[in-house]
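quick one, 195 residues, struct below
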Amino acid sequence: MPFQIGSPEHYKFHGVAFISDDVDDVKEISLYDFQTSTYRKCRIVDQMPYDLVEIQFDDDKTCTVTCRDSYRLAKDEREFRSTEEMMREDAWRMKVVEDEGEFDFYDEDEDDEWIKAEVGGLVDDLVSGVIDVRYRKSSGYWGYLHYESRRIAEYQTKTPVLTEEDLLEEETEQRRQEDMEQKDDAILDEMCKIQ
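---
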């Protein structure tokens, strides 16, 4: 019998890990609400795969889903940002997702450093906004992350700016790799014909 999307079996099948059980480590938090252009007091009520959490607003008990380290979350008023800042932040993040573009990514698994990355695709089996994080110009990927994560920064704001020379060198290396792959494929084709 097939399992339902969103069921525990679905998560197990996809190999998706849950975050730790300690989801209520911050008692009072606020989430920026774009509909009201204000920060609203809320609390984490549930954990989900992809480091997502369900948030319940204190005032009307409605819920929403975001990531545990969302740029929209604030622990106290000193972290509140203006509506203009929040709109700008949301705009560049949405553009990266829509364009499947490039961004800087904080890779805490790899020496705690910022690296260049790109959107490899969208993973919308739970909620919209989860992206497949891939290393820039590579077939290698890091994993899944919500686009609101603080581990994502505008492209080349946390990593060195690529010069024309860097881009040319990268393009040359990419062509070299493609040529090698084509030669390997041709050799395999010839070997198959001989057999």
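The chain has three helices and ten strands.
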